[in-house]
Design brief:
Elements: H1 2-18, H2 21-35, H3 42-48, H4 59-69, H5 80-95, H6 105-118, H7 129-143, H8 149-162, H9 168-176, H10 186-200, E1 206-213, E2 220-228, E3 231-235, E4 243-248, E5 254-258, E6 267-271, E7 276-280, H11 284-303, H12 308-445, H13 447-491, H14 496-534, E8 551-552, E9 555-556, H15 561-578
Antiparallel strand pairs: 1-2, 1-7, 2-3, 3-4, 5-6, 6-7, 8-9
Helix pairs in contact: 1-5, 2-5, 6-9, 6-10, 7-10, 13-14
């Protein structure tokens, strides 16, 4: 009864959701009681649909009434087709697609009933892709066409990306669109739907025309046989309008083949407890198919198993539930793994942050170290630059000192040369002193002449001083010109050629001045030589005593102190005599 209740609820759900419960709930309840052969309970019906706030008119409120006053009273003695047709009538107008379909309304009704049979036991009702594939395969097989698995796989992929399954109306649109029945006419599709409907909904395991032998008159009459899980019904024709009888099947029944007799072929016998039935098939193949189908049905009754299509549906559902449970378990494990992974990620993130902090500290320390290194490098560079400058200055000083040393050495060599000359002059002076003793008397006589000579000498001396002053002025002028030229050279490099000319002119002037200096020096030398030669008044400078030098008209160090004292006494005596 639980399975029957679930099947009834699916059809009722479609009708219930399609109606406005406040206006049509009473109609639905009344019709359900009628088609399900359940006694009416007007009091409970009015109580449920009264117009006040306590009347439970919602989906949840209607279910207790439906279960208590209708479904729990269902005995199974009702016409399933009429029940489904009543629910179909209430919901089809509102939900059936307005677009033209390749199937009739009757075929759409049968597809809707098949949907309720194959749909999942959860609301809102949907049929999953596996059941859609099962149904389409059954229809394709009934039409005698080949199943296009690749086409359905593409459709399944597109379906799974958007939702879990199809509703009843979407399934009707799919079959009515002819997507999986291309090349088939409407009649073939309708016959296939009817065949699948008979098998899945009406539990028709096999049907067809055969001859049946009568029990009273023993004549053979053609009948339309319909095999169901517990009964074989036979009718006048396949429209099922004129039923002639039933063969009740149970676990004690059996079926066996009979030899041909009385001109009838392909005979077989159905034995029941109270009666047996002789039947003749149209050919041996049909005979064997019917024997196997009846024997399989009897075996199922003995085992207490449901019909094959229901058992297959239950197995598919159990398999899906198992897969779903495995998937949920897998998802749970994945969540646990994900949680563990997240925890690991958090731990890794914490470790990463610690590493980043350590790296930041290391980077900061490295930065400080690099900064210190840069500072040390800068300081070292400055010290190196300073040392380089000091070394350059020292090199310049060394070069300067070297130059000065060279000049000093040159001066020393000049002084040594001069010393040699002085030595020679000293020898000459010694010789001159010897000669001086001889001419000393002559010098005394020539003192008076010396005054005249001294005047002349002073004149020459003044001329020499003037010449020297002129030479110094010219030197100063040349120095000024050189400074001006150096400033002009630094200020305007573009005037290099002009400065070169000026430098040449300056060199020419310098040569002239040099010539003048040489001339003046030669004049001075010639004058000194003349004086020394003629007068003997010039004495060479030689290293003498540390006593103060005495300067006379004859020049510095011309006489010794003793000689000068003697001369002074002589001059004083002459002066006293003259007075």
């Amino acid at each position: 009864m639980v399975g029957l209740k679930e099947e009834l609820l699916k059809s009722i759900w479609h009708a219930f959701t399609a109606l406005d419960l406040d206006r049509s709930g009473k109609v639905l309840s009344h019709n359900l009681c009628t088609v399900l052969n359940v006694p009416h309970d007007p009091v409970a019906l009015e109580e449920h649909f009264r117009d006040d706030d306590e009347g439970p008119v919602s989906n949840q409120g209607y279910m207790p009434y439906l279960n208590k006053f209708i479904l729990e009273k269902v005995q199974g003695n009702f016409d399933k087709v009429e029940f489904n047709r009543m629910c179909w009538t209430l919901c089809a107008k509102k939900n059936l697609s307005k677009s033209p379909l390749l199937i009739s309304d009757e075929d759409a009704f049968k597809v809707w009933v098949i949907f309720n049979f194959l749909s999942e036991d959860k609301y809102p009702l949907i049929i999953v892709p596996e059941e859609i594939e099962y149904l389409l395969k059954k229809l394709t097989e009934a039409m005698g066409a080949g199943w296009q698995q690749e086409q359905f796989d593409h459709y399944k992929i597109a379906l799974n990306t958007s939702r879990e399954g199809l509703s009843a109306w979407e399934l009707i649109d799919l079959i009515g669109s002819g997507q999986f029945s291309k090349g088939m006419d409407r009649q073939t599709v309708s016959m296939a739907i009817n065949e699948v409907f008979n098998e899945l909904i009406l539990d028709v395991l096999k049907q067809g025309y055969m001859l049946k032998k009568g029990h009273k008159r023993k004549n053979w009459t053609e009948r339309w046989f319909v095999l169901k899980p517990n009964v074989i019904s036979y009718y006048v024709s396949e429209d099922l309008k004129d039923k002639k009888g039933d063969i009740i099947l149970d676990g004690n029944c059996c079926v066996e083949a009979l030899p041909d007799k009385d001109g009838k072929k392909c005979l077989f016998l159905i034995k029941c407890l109270d009666k047996s039935f002789e039947i003749s098939a149209s050919d041996k193949k049909k005979k064997q198919e019917w024997i196997q189908a009846i024997q399989s049905t009897v075996n199922l009754l003995r085992a207490g198993s449901p019909p094959p299509h229901k058992e297959a549906r239950q197995k598919r559902k159990e398999l899906r539930q198992k897969l779903l449970a495995e998937q949920e378990e897998l998802e749970r494990q994945m969540k646990e793994l994900q949680t563990a992974n997240e925890n690991k990620q958090k731990e890794l993130e914490a470790v990463r942050k610690q590493l980043e902090a350590a790296a930041a500290r290391a980077a900061e320390e490295e930065k400080k170290r690099l900064q210190t290194q840069v500072e040390l490098q800068d300081r070292f560079s400055l010290e190196l630059e300073r040392e380089k400058m000091v070394r350059q200055k020292m090199e310049e000083q060394v070069a300067q000192k070297s130059s000065e040393l060279e000049q000093y050495l040159q001066r020393v060599s000049e002084l040594e040369e001069m010393y040699k000359q002085l030595q020679e002059a000293l020898e000459d002076e010694k010789q001159a002193r010897q000669d001086e003793e001889t001419v000393r008397k002559l010098q005394a006589r020539l003192l008076e002449e010396e005054s005249a000579k001294r005047a002349e000498l002073e004149k020459w001396h003044l001329q020499q001083q003037q010449t020297i002053q002129m030479t110094e002025a010219e030197k100063q002028e040349l120095e000024n010109q050189r400074l001006i030229k150096e400033q002009a050279l630094q200020a305007a490099m573009q005037q290099l050629e002009q400065l070169e000319l000026e430098r040449k002119e300056a060199l020419e002037q310098y040569e002239e001045v040099k010539k003048k200096l040489e001339t003046a020096a030669n004049n001075t030398k010639s004058w000194k030589d003349k004086v020394a030669h003629h007068e003997g008044l010039i004495r060479l400078i030689e290293p003498g005593s540390k006593n103060p030098h005495l300067i006379t008209n004859w020049g510095p160090a011309a006489f010794t102190e003793a000689e000068l004292e003697q001369r002074q006494k002589s001059w004083k005596g002459k002066k006293a005599t003259s007075e």
